[in-house]
Structure formats: C-alpha cells, structure tokens
What we know:
Elements: H1 8-13, E1 18-21, E2 33-37, E3 40-43, H2 45-64, E4 69-72, H3 76-89, E5 93-94, H4 106-124, H5 127-131, H6 134-151, E6 163-166, H7 173-181, E7 186-190, E8 201-204, H8 210-233, E9 243-245, E10 248-250, H9 255-264, H10 267-273
Parallel strand pairs: 4-5, 4-6, 6-7, 7-8
Antiparallel strand pairs: 1-3, 2-3, 9-10
Helix pairs in contact: 2-8, 3-8, 4-6
Amino acid sequence: MTKPDISLIEMLQSGVHFGHKSAKKHPKMDRFIFGARNNISIIDLEQTKLQLDKILPIFENLTAQGKKILFLGTKRQAQKAVKETAEKLEMPYIIERWIGGLFTNYHSVSGLMKKLTTLKEGRDGGEWEKRYNKKERLVMEREIKKLEKLVGGIENMDKLPDAIFVVDCGKESTAVREANYMKIPVFAIADTNANPLKITYPIPANDDGIKSIVYILSLISEAIQRGAKRLAENPIVPATTEISVANKKIEPVTKTTQQTEAESTPKAEVKATEPAAESK
C-alpha cells in the first residue's frame, strides 16, 4: 500500500487551517485546534495530517474491496468539486439537496431513481415519439430535468453505499444522522464548529474555502484511484452457494424444501417404504 504524500505547506497554501470564529467553536474540536488569531480559530495542521494518514488508507482499502462511497456536498463552494471528483471516480454523489429517508427508507426513495431511468430509456429509445404528443413529451422532459437535479448523481446506486463522504457535516446533519442510524461509516470534513463525535472518521479542515475542499478531495481521489488499481489487478470473485462435485453443480436443499417433501408424502406410504423387520 502506497503511503499518501501529505504536505503541510500545501495544506497551508490551500487555507485548510482556517476555522470559524472562536465564539462558534465546538468544545469537542479542542484537540484539533492550534489556537486563535484575530478571533478566528486556527486548525492544527499536524492533527489534520495525522487524521489523513489514518483515513486515506481506509478509502483505498474500501475501493480495493469493490465498495461504493457516496459523496455529499450541497453547499455552493463544494458542488462543482464534489461532482467532478465523484464522476471521475465513478462514485455516486449528491450536490443539490439531501433526500430525507435516502438511507432509512431506501426502498421507497429508490423509486425516484428507477423512474428517472425509465423516462430516459423511453425518450432515448424512441417510445415517446410513438405514444405521446408534443405537449406530453414536454411535460416528461421537464420531469427528467427535475429528477436529474434531485437524483441524477445516484441514479445507478442500486443499494445503500458502503460509506459516505460529507463536506459540511453541520449543513448535512440529517444525512449524518441517517448514516449513524444505519451504521454506515461517515467520512467528513470537520470544521471548528462541528461535533466530531458524530463522525466516524473526521478530517479537521476548513469546509468553507474552495481551495481547502478541492485539496482534501484531491487526496481522497488519489487514495480511491490506488484502490481501484488494486481491484483491477486482483478482481473479487463473487461468492456462490452452489457445490461442485465431479464437475456437476448441486443446488443446496433448504430446510423448507425438506419439510415440504416430508409433509407431501402420505404417512401410509412412508411406512410401506420402510424395510421389513428381519425374522428371528
């Protein structure tokens, strides 16, 4: 595993160390704060580096195992960077607004993704031209644009993600709460006003500066790319429940099947098939 190259100078130049006003500081973030300058909390970059040294290999290992990570960044400063990074890594993302219940009520919310896919297939396959008039097609085109904005980044997310990366855990508190409830690991940029106890893997850094967000995303992107390379070199063989005997596949018999066969056999017939007792 390649050790990530993290430079304190680059973090300083990217403004990773700038926090919020001292009055907004969360007490649980004290261990990540170096001090204050002009009533502004300054993040300890040594602590940021230590956290990244621990966290980036986890990103790499997750990707090497074929896991999916959802990227979440709905604040204006993060939207472009989050989208570009997630699309480059072929990971799901949300940049508009969090959909309440995405984790805790996934089966219902996933209907929006399926609806978007169905509408796009009908449009691209030429079905609309045959079945709908111009006005109806216009209404459905608007529906596609609406759904693209809402769930376009997670359209192909066919199951709950294995982890989530959040740019601003304060703004995305609902997503963090749902992830904690569903026991989905949370990676997040934790600014000085955040509660790191609600985050599985906090990264103390400035979550308002564009340069800071881009820098953290670039490190995560490199780690995920390393993991994807490992996965390509050592692909995961999917598990199978079939048992191979002499090159023949035998389907496992479930307990339910055995019980059903026993119940369907008449009692009298069962007695008849039993071997007769040997005479003395």
